[in-house]
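Forum: Protein Structure Q&A
Topic: Joint prediction for protein chains with partners

I've read a bunch of threads here and the consensus seems to be that you should model interacting components together rather than docking separate models afterwards. I'd like to see that in practice. Below is the full input, 294 residues plus whatever partners are listed. Could one of the regulars post the assembled result?
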Amino acid sequence: MFTRATQEAHTFIPVRNYSLGETLTSGQAFRWREVDREWEGVIGKRWVRLSQETGAIRAAAFETGSVEDWSWLKNYLQSETDLDRVISTFPRDQHMRAAISACPGLRLLKQEPWECLASFILSSTKQIVQIQQIIGLLCERFGEPIDTPSGRTVHTFPSAERVAAITEEDLRCCKMGFRAPYLRASAQMIARGDLDLSGIARLDVENARGELMRLPGVGRKIADCVLLFAYHFQEAFPLDVWILNAMRHLYFARRRPSPKGLLKFTQTYFGPNAGYAQQYLFHYMRTRIGRAKK
DNA sequence: ATCCAGGACCACT
DNA sequence: AGTGGTCATGGA
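Posted by a regular:
Agreed with the consensus. Here's the joint model:
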């Protein structure tokens, strides 16, 4: 009986103006961890290690068979997106300028829809470190094990079918609290085929958002996260507490426009890549401004 | 100890 | 169409 060798494959992905660190810590993906100046994570069924070089990202993947086609990784990293062209569409006010210069090379990843959706269902009123912890527990307990070169075992993100079969009690053991029934019921709708995640890519943004919001635990904000981070609807603009405070603080100097009014403002003001601009503001506020909000 | 976190949902006006 | 309370858990 032959077992196909599991082996580590390497490549260099040429990049320009790309910061792995800013990108992987900006609150869009939650499974990356920094180990000795390298980044380790799981994409689909592959364990991956990335590191920043000048002009390239060095990548190692660990899987059965040989790896010759790296398009799955380039697609995830969006390494071929012309970031300068995206940024050129941002408004040129002082706050955007500050955010852009504070987070050079920050990118939007292109994530798998189910993992992205489930992750953000688990994100509500949680800090990013806690979201990472919850997702880590969920994967460790219910994902499929993957070998790594170091001998450490990591796990895939459990599929919708798998999550649908987990009891609410077992989900709550992953510390997700009141989000457990939301995650479970959403997984069941997807597993049953009541909602087709792959079909959402073909819809216009309003219908795509409407589809996602049929899922329990998915409102406007989480839907916009999935629209932006998994489907790349560039006009999706996740309006969370950080962005809300940023907008009020930076653009509306303590007048207090309603969230609805703010959303309308963002759609015209931030241009065709509003969601991308939002990610810069979010990361900028969260890492550089910190408590200076309000 | 008190407040708050990449919210959604329900019951109220 | 807009408010307020509630949900679970752990940082700050």
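Chain A has a mean pLDDT of 94.
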